[in-house]
Write a structure and sequence with these properties.
The protein is of the alpha/beta class and 203 residues long. The chain has ten helices and five strands; from the N terminus they run βαααααβαβααβαβα. The protein is globular and about 50 Å long. The two termini are 13 Å apart. It holds the Pfam family Hydrolase.
Length: 203
Amino acid sequence: MKVLMVDVDGVLIHGRPADGQPLFTYLERDLGLRLDLLQQAFFQTHWSDIVIGREALEPRLSAVLAEIAPHLSAATLIDYWFENDSRLDLNLLEELAALRQSGVAVFLATNQEHRRARYLMEEAGLGAHVDDIIYSAALGHRKPSPDFFRLATARAGVPPGDIAFIDDMADNIEAARQFGWHAAQWTAGATLGGALPVFGKRA
């Protein structure tokens, strides 16, 4: 394998830094916004366009909050969101560092909108641990779309058979395998060598 693609949420990042709980666990207590309202008015309605780059995050979120939580600014909610969804898997980062030292390129392969992709690389510090980020809003397609894997392969610059991939979602794993990647589903407590034995001696 020449390239490892790594999913972010559910693999490299697990919820709140303090306790690993889901990022919006205390949303209503902290910001006075009910999660079910946010899910219905924003995520279920607009997220599919935002995550593939058709809409920008902050203007759309601002419009939604004006209706369901006029006391709350989009900037405040975005900061809260990103900061509470940034608990890093330090053991996996150590494995990735060893893998890169062996000459394997490591890319993040993730469904993200533009602002959080930048946050992950710069503020969360993942840019120091990977060669690049390949994400849905930049590609115009999200996993498990075949177009995501086609465009990600082109970005990696190697044939599909030279790419390995870890993700926590079964649909994404199946789509990657259909495209010719060597893919393994990531589960809690997994190790890179255990999930992908081809890397076992190096990681």
